[in-house]
Amino acid sequence: MNNKVSIVKCERYSEVQRAVEEAVALLGGIEKFVKKGDKVVIKPNLVSKKKPDEAVTTNPELLHAVIVMAEKAGGIVTIAESPGGPYNAAALRGVYSVCGVDKAIEGTNAKLNFDTGFREVHFPEGRTVKNIPIINPILDADVIISLPKLKTHAMTSYTGAVKNLFGTIPGTYKAELHFRLNERKSFCSMLVDLHECVKPTLSIMDAVWGMEGNGPTAGQNRHIGLVMASENAHALDMAGCHLIDYTVNEVDTVREAVERGFVADNAGKLEILGEDLESLVMKDFAKPESHFNLLRVVSLPASLNAKLTNALASRPKMDYDICIGCGECARLCPPKAIDMSGGKPVIDEKRCIKCFCCQELCPKKAVMIKRPLLNRFMLKFLK
């Protein structure tokens, strides 16, 4: 297995062209991955219509740097993503504009994808899913370069290179998978299946500015000052998790990859190129309020830990002082657990699957995270 991860310091986005090229050079150079005439699809994280300075989406300056690098190697570049919500040309146009992707392609020959077709891929090797709908540009590419953002995540604790590929599934099919796989472990197992099906050629992580707290969209911006890259998205995520002080067992996509033999079993066994990972670890990186792992507070068998963690799980809660009643949360809720009949969203807690899609996709950050009293007690007194 390939456990190489390159780490390069990049304090500001004005330095990102140099940092991206250096990070990829440490892995063998862009010519190792892109040949003249290759159809290169660059897949940024464009979860929703968020401005670049909100640190929610892949920064357009980093995207521009990767486009320039891929084109120098002779690649024919397309930018493709299936954001949260509907997957149609109008939705894509809005996301590309607000996220700065329109500007990212200026001065290049890169094209924006507006082909909203997809095909179902049979993947018999999958552990959790064996048939996966994937958008056309991904399936038609010779080279796939994934550009994840380093952020925390209310459902999965962390979102990085593997989770970024959820945006290769078209529109509402993502909601369907959330509904079918409503436990964190099975959902994360599906994400690992998806990664193995898509198999990105290269992953380059935007960790110049990331997000801590209640990510992936409602947390706080956090300056990290790094660009990280790897051929192995699992290795990149293990390094990213270690950087923000997560253990392997706290992030199910990483734990699952270790169990399946796709990556080394701990960050100490990664081959780090460039900066020293241990000297960069951020012990104070804020985790989501939904994050709760009993393995950090008491010693229990993994099966019992999973059951108790589910029982103590946090839930979404509406902040009606901020909510504008737009109905986006209800429209995008996978189990349809949100009622808008009174003009403001009301969550049916019995139907809620705690996927936090409402929190992730709320345009006003009006969805908070409610922690049960016993959950708060255990974190305070049993650490």
Overview of this protein structure:
It is built from 14 helices and 16 strands. With 383 residues, the chain is an alpha/beta fold. It has two domains: 4-280, LarA, N-terminal domain (Rossmann fold, 3-Layer(aba) Sandwich), CATH 3.40.50.11440; 294-381, Alpha-Beta Plaits (2-Layer Sandwich), CATH 3.30.70.20. Strand 2 (39-44), helix 2 (60-72) and strand 3 (76-79) form a beta-alpha-beta unit. Helix 1 crosses helix 2 (60-72), helix 8 (184-198) packs across helix 10 and helix 9 crosses helix 10 (252-259). The radius of gyration is 20 Å and the shape is globular. The two termini are 35 Å apart.
Summarize this, please?
The chain has 383 residues and is α/β, with parallel strands linked by helices. Helices cover 31% and strands 21% of the residues.
Distance between the termini: 35 Å
Overall CATH architecture of the largest domain: 3-Layer(aba) Sandwich
Structural class: alpha/beta
* Average pLDDT number: 92
Helix coverage percent: 25-40%
| Order of secondary-structure elements | EHEHEHHEEEHEEEHHHEEHHEHEHEEHEH
Provide the number of structural domains: 2
The first-level CATH class name of the largest domain: Alpha Beta
Low-confidence stretches: 294-300
Radius of gyration: 20 Å
Query: Biggest β-sheet, characterized?
Result: 10 strands, mixed
The total count of helices amounts to 14
